[in-house]
Amino acid sequence: MVPASVPSGIEIAKHRGARYRLGPELEICGYGCWDHYHESDTLLHSLQVLAALLESPVTQDIICDVGMPVMHRNVRYNCRVIFLNRRILLIRPKMALANEGNYRELRWFTPWSRSRQTEEYFLPRMIQELTKQETVPFGDAVLATLDTCIGSEVCEELWTPRSPHVDMGLDGVEIFTNASGSHHVLRKAHARVDLVTMATTKNGGIYLLANQKGCDGDRLYYDGCAMIAMNGSIFAQGSQFSLDDVEVLTATLDLEDVRSYRAEISSRNLEASKVSPYPRVKVDFALSCHEDLLEPLSEPVEWKYHSPAEEISLGPACWLWDFLRRSQQAGFLLPLSGGVDSAATACLVYSMCRQVCEAVKDGNREVLADVRTIVDQPSYTPQDPRELCGRILTTCYMAGENSSRETCDRAKELAQQVGSHHLGLNIDPAVKAVVGIFSLVTGKSPLFAAHGGSSRENLALQNVQARVRMVVAYLFAQLSLWSRGARGGLLVLGSANVDESLLGYLTKYDCSSADINPIGGISKTDLKDFVQFCMESFQLPALQSILVAPPTAELEPLASGQVSQTDEEDMGMTYAELSVYGRLRKLAKTGPYGMFCKLLVMWRDVCTPRQVADKVKRFFSKYSINRHKMTTLTPAYHAESYSPDDNRFDLRPFLYNTRWPWQFRCIDKQVLQLERRQQDLEGVD
């Protein structure tokens, strides 16, 4: 339950002169309850919070629109409960449920399917005692105040082909409200803004959108972007990312501007004359008053978008802060390899520290209290991000016999510049001990391929190093603060990117296994852009050498002291190609043959049909061989729409016929036909 933020938001809204307050979807219990929605406790506690709100003097003389689950006739609904002065005006159930990607609303709720119809809802006794009402309207209706008409949409309903605001607007509704639980995806903000502005461009009206903001307990970060629009223009923009628990957005608009805008759209007015009416709940209350005549009106604003690199610097950093403060740990431990991925993760923690310092400087008391709890110093006030980073981030370079001096130096230099507490250690004794146990039991000593060993031996020896690093990371996460005389433990951060996870280019239970992974939903291409952004914006010159160095796992023997192994060579494909495969597999929903057909056109200038076929078959073979690794992926920040997260977003088998016999035969057959056609054309020439 998150009731504390609700009354504080109402209080701020009233202080600013607001007469209607809209909160985000399911705000009383929190959107991310998931299967807790099945529990009677969740319904009971939501009603208890509603009772406290009804009883509070804060909620008097303002229409309050809150979100919570409601059971009506033994069916659970995702509802808006709208009340005024201790009386419930309307319970409006959600009519279109989100059930794709990360959303599973049909698992917990039933959509209200009776358009423009209401029923009597019998209030529980604890609510009846407060409101002195036995029943209230439940269903698809609108509010008719003394001066206007207000209609509700809930999140997904804005995105449907026939959104309720269309018919509501034709029926005279002038103010539309939308309570959302929409999570961050890179480059998604424009879609919300476009939908809202287009809704009010075609039909006129005022549109209010309230969205959750922050980590709600899992992989998603809800990214705010609250807004107020009128007649196709934005009049107020909320932040997309911040550490504030409560943000209130207000605007003063003239209802006559809506009426005059609609008056000259004849096509709209013709449609309006034919629309079926909505049930109206009469409300003896006005959003305006005579004194408003001298109130200055809000002016249109131009929406300010973040670049993808800025989004990465802010979203995952805010998610990390929410995770850290709510887990009650004392900081993070990050295995820092000297490569782009772990460097990007270090930059995210540094960005988090910058945001914490800025929030404290701006007077955010909640953030100050949280940071003092984390560092276990009641009088501490953070001012310098580097100094704060030194308190809450421990980085660790774990060298082995195959590590190069260059990666060690790059890791150390970056740690110095972000200010982390940096450790350097050698894992060779542990690796030799583990391999020694195998040799003692079997009488066999595996060798690297460079020393004459087989591919099986080579891979096993690489995996031992990787897994030892995971064990060492957790040991230091638990005890490094103890060794320094400080209290608490550290959360282990992973740093495998979305492309490597997609292909399975990681060792099961290596350093990709961690408590959380802030970059697990971000592509290598975007991560490089982000690191470039950090180098320039955060003045971290150590990132320059990291950016230009070829990505390498450093698990095979060096050649003349130099790295002989690169990631792209190991994978047999480039990171850029992986991003293309990922988007085609998930977003375009292609299997091997469908992907081959699309890439024939996309890559026609650089690849022959046979080369395309070989690339597609190589990807799907490796993807299917390694799909089992997705079942153990570290919980990662969701930022990319082609994430292979097996937990909820990308539900596919993890045991495949990795030869794909039917699909690959179809590809081969098509290649032969294309090659014969090309030969025939050349023969004609």
TrEMBL record:
Protein name (record): Glutamine-dependent NAD(+) synthetase
GO biological process: 'de novo' NAD+ biosynthetic process from L-tryptophan
Lineage, top ranks: Eukaryota, Metazoa, Chordata, Craniata, Vertebrata
GO MF term list: ATP binding; glutaminase activity; NAD+ synthase (glutamine-hydrolyzing) activity
Gene3D superfamilies assigned to the protein according to its UniProt record, in alphabetical order: Carbon-nitrogen hydrolase (3.60.110.10), HUPs (3.40.50.620)
Pfam families assigned to the protein according to its UniProt record, in alphabetical order: CN_hydrolase (PF00795), NAD_synthase (PF02540)
Record key words, sorted: ATP-binding, Ligase, NAD, Nucleotide-binding
Subunit structure of this chain's protein: Homohexamer.
Presence of the UniProt keyword Ligase in the record: yes
Family: In the C-terminal section; belongs to the NAD synthetase family.
Reactions listed under catalytic activity: deamido-NAD(+) + L-glutamine + ATP + H2O = L-glutamate + AMP + diphosphate + NAD(+) + H(+)
GO cellular component: cytosol
InterPro entries per record: C-N_Hydrolase, C-N_Hydrolase_sf, Gln-dep_NAD_synthase, NAD/GMP_synthase, NAD_synthase, Rossmann-like_a/b/a_fold
Biological pathway: Cofactor biosynthesis; NAD(+) biosynthesis; NAD(+) from deamido-NAD(+) (L-Gln route): step 1/1
EC number annotated for this UniProt entry: 6.3.5.1
Domain of life of the source: Eukaryota
Record-annotated CN hydrolase domain positions: 1-255
CDD domains: GAT_Gln-NAD-synth (cd07570), NAD_synthase (cd00553)
Keyword NAD: yes
